Amino acid sequence: MTMNDRGLRLDALCAGYTVRRGRAVRRVLEGLDAVAAPGELTVLIGPNGTGKSTLLRTMAGLQPALDGRVVIDGVAVETVPPPELARRLAVVLTERDLPALLTARELAGLGRHPYTGFTGRLSAADADIVSWALDAVHATHLAERAVTELSDGERQRVLVARALAQEPSAILLDEPTAFLDVTSRVALMGLLRRLAREKELAVVVSTHDLELAVRVADRLWLLSTGGRLLTGTPEELTASGAIGTTFDGDELSFDPASGVFVLHGGDGGKVRVSADDVHRPLVERALSREGWTPGAARDADAVELAVRHGPGGYAAAFDGGTTAFATLPELAAWSRATAERLRDAPPGLLPADAAAVAGAVTDISTVGAYFELDIGPVEAEWRPLTDLFSDPSVLRARIDATADSLGTDETRVAASILFQGIAARVWSPPLGALLAHGLLVELDPDRVHWRAASRGPLPLRADGLPGWHVRDPARAAATVYDTVVARLLEPLTDTIQGIVKLAPGLLWGNVASALAGTVRALVRVRPELGEAAVTLGRELLDLGLLRDTGQLAEPAPGLPLFVRRSCCLYYRLPSGGKCGDCALIDPDTRRDQWARAVRETQGAQ
Ligand SMILES: Nc1ncnc2c1ncn2[C@@H]1O[C@H](COP(=O)(O)OP(=O)(O)OP(=O)(O)O)[C@@H](O)[C@H]1O
Prior knowledge:
Iron complex transport system ATP-binding protein; five-stranded mixed sheet; Rossmann fold; translocase; ATP hydrolysis activity; binds adenosine-5'-triphosphate; P-loop_NTPase; 3 domains; alpha/beta; Transferase(Phosphotransferase), domain 1
């Protein structure tokens, strides 16, 4: 026997059962190749019914291999005579019913059976080996106790002592930790690993405790549901994803970073927790129970939660604010409510605190009349935007009122001008709040109300508004487009088209022109936001229905001027003329206008 022969080896092993009175064969395991080396703790894992017991029983020679072979110390198990095999291989099966009258020492002494001949009498040398074995498993103090009076953990240690007393070169154990508490489980696995190292034993142990297996095993044998056996160090099988593929379920998945199973948060969303010491795993675990999926790596989809622990409890910084909690369960309960809010959030957006939204809206209202949006109680004279946007009779009345105040009897002119005003109204607060506060305010047409006013932009009020943090700045333009154009202005154009025929080019030119006006107002009043406003404006003008409506030029830095491809019909009013961005302006006039605008801007600087 060479050094390489030592230990246990599976050669194309096929294991299973003959069933139906020997007429059929049930092959559970097919073509397994693996090595359990001396000095190593090999842990056999696999879901229920994959064949762990079948494999161990076949390795122990308790049932014949269907094909292939099990080799111990270079010799096929089936060719080793039973007494010789018992001196090479010890087996610890799940035994709870042990002879009632035996003491622990007598039970361990049974391990000397292969050496004592048929009398079973132990020599002094045998007795010394039994004492050594009991000592090795720290059970000397239990030696004279009846095995039936031992705890499950104590009894398992004595069974390991019995195996050691056989002085084998390999030990097989089938789920020895099954009935043990956490401490005893860890202690028993630690003991087996120590014995493997110190006595140069090949130890193969099966367990359902995957987390423990990953921590203590020198080598894992992973039985997958397809009857395949994958072997490697715990790190290899974790990194290859083999453990996750085999054990991940609907509710749980194996987290490669921490080596523990985490509950699937599913719809709570991903969270990245930063906290000191033990508090990070504690908070993560509490959160995963509440439906979150803690993500170890930096992840664009993950919510950031920074937790500090101090004498007063926990302080959690999230979403721009910090909340204090006396206990971890309080923090968890809060996270549950937050997860629910997040669940309703559109992709890429994080719900913002109502006070933060109100603060942003109030702040941006100071930019100009089109940016004003009152946050306050909505009294009876206020009507939801939904009415104006989707009830043709309400919109028609508003168009007529506009026609009256502009002194025109052309419904389409009044409709175009009213529409452009409304477009400017719905662009301004969201764009301003986004640029100034990083918050996308959603003008929910059921919550934003308007009321008739004889002059100026349509007065708007809401008793509170949903708002979002845009998590991915690259998606900001698309998100604003969706909120303002797709959800508000597209339905409004449909209603208008039902009342009066206006070319889509005119309507979307008005929307673009209103957007350019909003950008210009921001550049003028909040110059610090100017550059970002122009960039966002350009991005928006490249999206969906706004594409090809015109061009945003910047003849001088900080002077964004729009040239549209259509005309809004303003020139048809008795007092009207061509707007600065009108497609009807001839190039020479435009050049003069721009030169004047550049001079004015420079003069103002
Ligand atoms: N005596 C038997 N005759 C026929 N089939 C059997 C017999 N014992 C077990 N099996 C079958 O062999 C397969 C493997 O069973 P085995 O007990 O080896 O799996 P296991 O991985 O140890 O399961 P568990 O994790 O539930 O203990 C199962 O499908 C089982 O039904």
